[in-house]
Amino acid sequence: MNISIDGIGYQLASKKETFTDLKNDNPEWDMDLIVSKTGVETRYVSETNETALSLCIAAAKKLDFNPHDIGACIFVSQSPDYMLPTSACIAQEELGLDRDVAAFDINLGCSGFIYALSVAKGILSDIEKSKALLLCGDTYSKLINKNDRTCRPIFSDAGSAVLLSKSESKNTGPFIFGTDGRGYDKLIVRNRASKVESKFDDFLHMNGAEVLLFTMANVPTGVKALLKKANLESEDIDYFLFHQASAIVLDNIQRKLNIPDEKFPRNNKDIGNTVSATIPILMKDLEDEGRLKKGQKLLLFGFGVGYSYGGCILEY
Amino acid sequence: MTKDELFLLIKNALDADDQIDINASADNIPEWDSLGHLSVLTALDDATDGKASSLSDLSDATSVTEIVNILEAQEII
Fold it and tell me: Which chain A residue has its CA at the smallest distance from B40's CA?
């Protein structure tokens, strides 16, 4: 059994923030330099009453589906509403889904969409209901110090919702996954869960150089491994859809893999890095532009916090 | 790669006004901040066919001397 994507919706956080706003808060920042490295000119920041879950639910409500058809609801986020319960259980109630639904969270960041696709494919093969909802969202801005030049210019808040259904005709996969826990503290928020480390604060911290090295060492080789596993050549792929990390990361990946611009879409300039939501948001934007069409062969690849990465081939 | 080629690579990556030599570092090259260091890393990665990305010590190497030592240990220069 395979899966197909029946619809994608997304909801950006309500407060739009430009690089001018960042400059006003931090006059010493060289915004031309920052934008040249990040590629991000506009980001979206959640208000106090907005959460990753509320953004994902708003995104899901943009989709056309019968709640009774949904057999699984998967919420991918590192910004849950509560330590417990599972946010997906709240989504089940708020979206009016039946009670015989598998609802659970996946705590992953930028690789999370790929993992959730694979999990959803597995669950759909085991249940009678025909559809699954895959919600990916984060509100990292709530975790970022306003003076943090590494994190604040990149990350953006949003929620996405992807409607999946069983399919006999579409091909999904193969998948590849990878993890390197040696990098667990290179992109980290301490002191907001069970472990207390009193010498650290509770903001998001990223070692940009370390994360960049991880990406450069693992993503291009991972893409090549995925293509080999799928017995495909680069030319067989219509679009390479990467996690929209930052310009310097995307530039390196594109250069190393020699992917032409027309097959390497980006939208981080106007949206920023929305963590696990970047790939579904990119797909939705491409579809709205008329560029993404049914039947096209896509290579999706997410990577980041963990360290963790995952990729798959998907026939849209 | 020779040391002179490395110096030029770092100068270009940083778009630095000053000449880069063995004594250059983040302490005396204004363009060599955390963002500039990312450019150094990607330039090194390109110039070494990806070998540099496997050298995690480079993440903290914000002086030419440190970079030279790391690359010499790997016989890249």
Answer: A209
